[in-house]
Write a structure and sequence with these properties.
The protein has 354 residues and is α/β, with parallel strands linked by helices. It is 37% helix and 17% strand. β1 and β2 form a beta hairpin. α7 packs across α12 and α8 packs across α10. The structure holds zinc ion. Zinc ion (ZN) binds next to loops.
Amino acid sequence: MQSLPRLHLYIAPSRLQFPLCGFSVELIVDMEIKEPHERTEQMSPLQPTARRIGIDLGGTKIEGLALDSAGAELARLRIPTPQHDYAATVRSIVGLVQQLEQRAGLSSDGKPATVGVGIPGTIVRATGLVKNANSIWLIDQPLERDLSLALTRPVRCANDANCLAVSEATDGAAAGAELVFAVILGTGCGGGIAVNGQVRVGPNGVSGEWGHNPLPWATADELPGPPCYCGQRGCIESWISGTGLASDHRRVTGHTLTGPQIVAAAAAGDAAAEASLVRLEDRVGRALAGVVNLLDPDVIVLGGGLSKLDRLYAHLPALIARHLFGGGALATPVLRAKHGDASGVRGAAWLWPA
Ligand SMILES: [Zn+2]
């Protein structure tokens, strides 16, 4: 016979108010015996249970996170992304959600945790199919529908830069801001928009995706610009990303270095690397000035590998202000993502409102 505290483990709070007549005690004992032993060891009556699960589907890894109702982290897991295999990718996400629920505890009121998934692409509203994914095996697949069916609950998918915007607007660098523009300056460059903490997708699914607009205020030597994988030339992404920085440095100096190597060389006093970073900053400033003149967001948040560069936050306000319509100082804070690399998975969890 189990001790009394263990009898309480799987009883919804409302059940505890019932008088314990002989019949209900027998029923509770029966429920207890059917539960897996490992879960009885992990949970206590006061332990919070998973309300939200966020999944960040990356090209090489899938990260999952379970949050309780207050947004505190309960469990986090990471697995490799199956390469070029859509069905295996779906199975991996489903397995990850199940593992997170097991580790964090199922909701005590019987409601399954909500599931949001950040994807390297977008879901077109009219078709429900994935587009613009650099993990090409996702393209034209009904990922949101397949995950919803497999997990027997509605699942929301959103672009990873939109997840960054939602995460930072919820409890990050832009907490409480009405309109947030978020940029992932990583290997590539993506933009996302959150309005009142909620993702803004748009009928074409490309809200915030200004990375494939042309670099604004381009100089003669920047035209027509490098070819982009999207089919155009001179896209913002082909200039202001880790890849773009490396290509620009190679074009100007003839030396092949990666983005992090250029940053390290500049810090060590290499004048050519420093000049490459100055060009990068100027281009990021121009690209963001275009955003400010269009949207005038309350906060601009930067995430991704290049967002770790401290100098960006010192230099960007003046560089953006140079192209601000009507002039004057920039009133928009430009901030580093508070949750860093975790913002993608946190934002995915917050795709479902409270
Ligand atoms: Zn492009």
